[in-house]
Specification:
This protein has about 500 residues and is mainly alpha-helical. It contains 23 helices and twelve strands. The strands form five sheets. Strands 1-2-3 form a three-stranded parallel beta sheet. A three-stranded antiparallel beta sheet has the order 4-5-8. The chain binds one RNA strand of 76 nucleotides through strand 5, strand 7, strand 8, helix 7 and strand 12.
RNA sequence: GCCCCCAUCGUCUAGAGGCCUAGGAUACUUGGUUCUCAGCCAAGAGACCGGGGUUCGAGUCCCCGUGGGGGUACCA
């Protein structure tokens, strides 16, 4: 029998990282075992379910590269089947009618089956109605809910993560499977759907641990094979509480727009609650698929640590080929600057070498794009601390050196080693460390105190652009433009 | 309230009774490399929640406590 797993999100919001991790574990298992990974949208909550949420979830999975088999199922399409299953339970005497109206005080009290006492009351009340009477009242048009009659005994299963689990049935209330308005409840719908879809392994968050015995009882009552259950731990926020909106970015899409690579996200999520058993941390999805197993999934919930995600992203960034990075950087560039893909056309080789130089010192695609702007447009922004540190401590000397350097570079062959010889040579003549020359130069070329190696920056910019920027710096310094900004800052 | 789950550095984790003087990663600190940043290299600090058992021996098994989490619906 081929393994079939499913991911069953409710379309009541974006794709949450917790949901994504659950989806990932399902996907890893299916892909590793030659099984099928099916998507089921649990859209039975009409009020909160929205098509755009379904879209967002599909997009999130798509971005992560978690491809599902076949078309997505929609739980709402199975309502007739759910109802039929509930009715069959009733026919077979495994469920009973509950005429109590929860909207009335009496009904609500009798329906509060939250403790032993309430459980007993619900059952007693229902049993006080004979089957005959029940049928007569139903035929007369009185509305009712259908409650599953939980049998005596104990329900146990072998959880693929938690091991042997057993629950006294006495602790389980007679749950409603069909509401008085004729709609199925969650536990019935899930069991009915999973059985209908031939799901063999149910891998879900361990917040469903307490639903499991109820569902097993339903499988058994309906005469269906019980799947393997695996309850994976939840993901927590930095404060140890269940990850939620107030922790900041919890949507997978947030990380997409922050310049995290899908491979890095997948790698990171896989490492939350699972480890391969050795010290390997950076893995591509093939390796994850090959090494993943439910047996190594932890029972302990884990905290989502953005810092580690970013580190991992840097690792993946370093391992991703420039031609795969290119479209991502370009897209981001268009968002944050006026650089168009037209501009980039015709200078692919140059553009690629730029990306290669920047990626080393970047942790996200956004970092690369932000830094790239300097080389792609001419409206430089000068970083104030950089200007103050490398120019304004001694503006006159700075001007002198930049001018001398500009003159010297004008005649040098525009090639990395020749440039290096020229610049280092000049520093020697001036009897100062190379940094004294290079730092002011860097600020003039990039406006920033940090950049790739200065000789790379020079060749990247090309002679004309580089000299032009130096001129601009010299002029500005002479006119005191930069001193002015400093004064402003001092006053502020 | 009741039921259930969980518990190793701040964080992610290794650890299936002696291999643990508790390993790795991240984050942090310091030093080195270098034109800056990133990186890289080296070093440092940092954990078995507490108490009882069991055992020759416990991070590892059992019990209690504590802490955290989940559930407790005619929500999903």
């Amino acid at each position: 029998m081929t393994m079939r797993v499913r991911f069953a999100p409710s379309p009541t919001g974006y794709l949450h990282v917790g949901g994504a991790r659950t989806a990932l574990f399902n996907w890893l298992l299916a892909r590793g075992q030659g099984g099928e990974f099916i998507l089921r949208i649990e859209d039975t909550d009409r009020a909160r379910s929205k098509p755009e949420h379904t879209e967002a979830i599909l997009h999130g999975l798509d971005w992560l590269g978690l491809d599902w088999d076949g078309e997505p199922h929609f739980q709402s399409e199975g309502v007739e089947r759910h109802r039929a299953d509930a009715l069959r339970l009733l026919d077979e005497g495994k469920a009973y009618r509950d005429f109590a109206d929860p909207s009335t005080a009496v009904g609500a009290a009798s329906g509060a089956a939250t403790d032993e006492e309430g459980r007993r009351r619900v059952r007693e009340l229902a049993e006080s109605v004979t089957p005959e009477e029940s049928r007569v009242r139903a035929d007369a048009g009185e509305s009712f809910a259908i409650r599953f009659r939980v049998p005596a005994g104990e329900t146990s299963w072998e959880d693929a993560v938690h091991g042997r689990r057993a629950v006294q049935n006495a602790a389980i209330p007679d749950l409603v499977v069909l509401r008085r308005d004729g709609t199925p409840t969650y536990n019935l719908a899930v069991v009915s759907d999973d059985a209908d879809m031939g799901i063999t392994h149910v891998i879900r968050g361990d917040d469903h641990l307490s639903n499991t015995p109820k569902q097993i009882l339903l499988y058994q009552a309906l005469g269906w094979p019980v799947p393997v259950f695996a309850h994976v731990p939840l993901i927590l926020g930095p404060d140890g509480k269940r990850l939620s909106k107030r922790h900041g970015a919890t949507a997978v899409g947030d990380y997409e727009s922050r310049g995290i690579l899908p491979d890095a996200m997948v790698n990171f999520l896989a490492l939350l609650g699972w480890s391969p058993g050795d010290d390997t941390e950076v893995m591509d999805r093939e390796e994850l698929v090959a090494r993943f197993s439910l047996g190594r999934v932890l029972k302990k919930s884990s905290v989502f640590d953005v810092k580690k995600l970013e580190w991992l992203n840097g690792q993946h960034l370093a391992r991703t080929a420039a031609d795969r990075l290119e479209p991502l950087v370009t897209a981001k560039l268009q968002l944050i600057s006026g650089v168009s893909s037209d501009y980039l056309r015709g200078r692919e080789v140059w553009y690629r070498s730029l990306i290669d130089l920047l990626r080393v010192r970047a942790r996200t695609v956004d970092d690369i794009a932000r830094q790239a702007v300097v080389y792609l447009t001419d409206d430089l922004e000068y970083d104030e601390p950089a200007v103050r540190k490398h120019w304004l401590k001694d503006p006159n000397t700075t001007v002198d050196r930049l001018e001398a350097l500009r003159e010297r570079l004008a005649d040098v062959e525009w090639e990395k080693s020749a440039l290096e010889t020229a610049i280092r040579g000049m520093a020697e003549e001036l009897e100062v460390g190379a940094g004294k020359v290079i730092h002011p130069l860097r600020v003039s070329l990039t406006g920033m105190a940090a950049s790739p190696g200065i000789f790379d920056v020079l060749t990247l910019l090309g002679r004309d652009r580089a000299l032009e920027r130096m001129d601009r710096a010299i002029e500005g310094l002479k006119r005191g433009t930069f001193a002015g900004t400093q004064n402003e800052r001092t006053r502020a």
